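tool_log.txt
---
The assistant was asked to compare two proteins side by side. It first ran the structure predictor on the initial sequence, then on the second. Raw inputs and outputs are pasted verbatim so the downstream comparison step can read them without reformatting.
(1)
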Amino acid sequence: MQNWIFNKSFDYPSENQLQLVKDKILESSQIEINIEKHLKSILKIVYHFANNPWISQEEIIGLLNIDKSSLKILNEYIRENTYLQNLIIKGGSGYKYWQTISPFCSKINDAIDNSFSYPMRIGIYPGVSCMYYCGFCGRNQDARYPSNIVEDGYKMFKSVLSELDPKNSAISISGGLEPLTNPKLGDVVEFASDHGLKVPLITNGHSLTEKNVLKNKGLKKLDSIRISLYGVDEKSYEFITTLKNSYKTVKKNCINFLKFRNDVNPKIKFGINYIILKENINDLPKLTEFISEVNSAVDNGPGIDFLSLRDDFDTVTGISDKSDSKKKYHLGGLLNYEDRQKLIYIFNELERDSEIKKLHVDYGYALYAIKNGLAGTTLKKICDKEMRKYAHTQMSVCVDLFGDVFLYREAGFLDRPGNKKFIIGRVNKNNSLKNIIEDFLYNSNGLENASNDIRFMDPFDHVLTSLINQAENDKKFGIPFKYGPVKLRVDTKNINVGNSWYKDV
């Protein structure tokens, strides 16, 4: 019945569908309205928001050719209709975007006004170095932190984590360098967990050895761990990472950690993340072999819990300056329409596999639409001119081992050329995270963003920036979010800010 909404363009439901849709709408109606008169306009609004969460109220008025007061009436009707809300949030190709942006609407006014509030998500970047030289990674591949700052870095992370209210902020441990190269990582995880925070870890898995896991006993307090998988055999793994025997190492480490997980804390969710590139599309079906072999080797309980699939986001292959870092190679560019068509078929085959059926599969933003048959869908991106002078500190920042606070996630790579402008301060004994953000918001002129600065933004940063820009434009137009058609943008108190790797939120 929802097929009409998951489409490339708006198409009025068939006659049979229409009556069913109308009945569902009326069952959930809280407000009296002439449904016969307004049905087509209501369905158009719902369709566009379900597939494009960033469409502005001005654009909607242009599509419907109505005035503001009429649109407010229609918005209210939609906003108070449970069936229509479910269609918007869950019915279209924007579903994964809605999962991400809904919680952050609670900070919209602070973001528009450049007012202080603690970030809802903070990236913790504890890695000292990295053994891989991946072509899609934006890091300076010559950079590493001095080992003598690890202890001070741990104390600094403790101070940052101590500031946070677990009810209003979430963290993730990842970064431009491999987190497990930090010998104090287990202590960071344990402290964060004891403070009431759920702790997800993103790692390449190369250092997830039995020895390292036993040294970092705090890893048993992780909420989840996601292994970045870079190939399906030794050849493909070495091509991406440039390191021999890396596939065998990671596979062995996955098995051993799952056994450790099952013994000490079965609640830890364990998954793998696979970035889809032009060079590895045809390898995707072989993921099932990896999953099957790992799971069959775990003899003391469950195996892999989730799989996340992502497409490359121009970090290197499309928009980065080739002088950005000293990479050993460069990849062949982004997925084209034909590549995405091929993915539709491959995803359908994956879904039929018995091993995949056991997992929670997260296709991410654009891949979710491709999985559902929309091959032309690409990731949401902004241009340099749309970047905000004060970024989105109320929603997201990241902190590295020095204590440097970065506005964007792809900027938090040690000594990456051009990233210094995105450092707004350094956490130390005399300077808290709160002080740094307040000083940036209230005592600076913000940033003058230059051409190609968007290379420092990851998909999450693009999505948050798009959300704030949309909210600001709607407010200026005279129909702010509270008068818009989406209830979750008004009532955000019960929305989970956590990640959706292993469950839908």
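(2)
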Amino acid sequence: MLSSAEVSNRLSSFPRFEDMLLSLPYAPRMPKGMVRETREVVAIARAFNEKVARPRALELDRKTHEDPDYMPRDLVELANRWGFYTMWIPRIFGGRGYNMPSMSYFAEEVGSVCLGIMNVIGVHYLGVAGVVASANTRLAKRILGEVARGEKTGNPCLIALATTEPGAGTDVEEVELVDKGRVACHARRVRGGYVVNGTKVFISMGHVSTWTVLYAYEDLKRPSETTVGLMVKTGTQGFSFGSHENKMGQRVCPASVLVFEDCFIPDDQVLFSTDMVRKFTKKPIREVAQRYIDYVVGATRPGVCAFGVGAARGAFETALKHASTTTMNGTLLINHEWVQSMLAEMYKNVALGRLAYTEANYANSHRGLYKILQLKPVYYYLRLMPQAYFDKVIGPMLEKDYSTRLMGKLSYDWARPEDQRCCSGWASLAKVAGTDLGVRNCQMAIELMGRTGLRQDAGVEKMLRDIKLLQIYEGTNQLNRLNVFKCLIAPEVPQARVFDEDR
């Protein structure tokens, strides 16, 4: 038997035990209430599928193909009535306060029917994560409070996230690459705020959202050192919409071009800037900006994995139904060994993808953006206290400067680099795994079903079109593979260079 010291030493060597199997050390720390919540969330998703998603998925795909300018406002209103836009917003900001990992299971369920419909719901939380990650509690209370009021009044308030630029693509999701990209969205500092000029492209739900989280740069020659996060309200002078992309898949979820022409954003709508960051940390803005991006993608890329797993599962379920009801040479397909082997492979892919997003969510729950909310005392405090308490007692505290400075300290100044790498690396790993497995299962389903799988009304070709986009969305899978190397492998190899600007 090994001594305790020997065990600790061996498990701390690369690869570290706790970095490989996050669920084992962290599962006992998770509140049991999270399991009950997740079961409830899955039940809600299945009810939504039966009543809304399944009856309308193919209809909406055809409708948006015939009318590329269609905007899913009726679908947004339905999702708002179901409470989906506040379900994963913390109660201190007026939301329903369901645990964030449960959203991945929700995404798998709805995504198994239609990724486009799921994106109409889920992309909103990219914006929510962008607001929460800023640590600007006053602005978060204001914006997320509007979302909560929009649910009560029946006027949906959605938040979009504007990152991608025409000349930079997904480069801006890695601070190491920003300076190589042709970023052009400029935020000029003026008295009382910023004046923004530039364009963002392929912004999901841009046309339908009330607010947009915008990343811009004060100095385009040094963008990584001058990153600014701004909140822009639809209808603001100088902010307009360009074309609505006619995409190959996820057609029901619009992808918009956003245009900023001398658009003034006041100081009270600044999420973060160099001046704000200096109030709670001496770390360089480049490092803080990367941390901010990692918080956002660490919280959301596991959800993208769940999208992919949903497509993988939908393809498997469709193929299983086809094999169970179709005969070949007088024998049901399901009784042919080659079909059984393919179905087993597809089932395996679903299971592996689910494990990937589960592990990534464990990383984020205990090392990432939402780690405070998943501590047992905090979790039960937030679940059990009446909402009036948060509105009347906690709410005024969030308005104070000290609240933002404290959250900034907790989130950025006192954050451990190894936690950041773990969350970001596992989020990228999950995103690549889920989307690649989703594409593979859709391809296998079409191969198994033959000519039937090519028919639009079978649904699988739509699933393939939908899932293919996710290999490119939220950082291409090539970029995410490099991030896996950067975060999970390179720290153990001193001579390794990732995103080397000198090459």
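---
observation on (2): The chain has 19 helices and ten strands. Residues 285-325 form the longest helix (41 residues).
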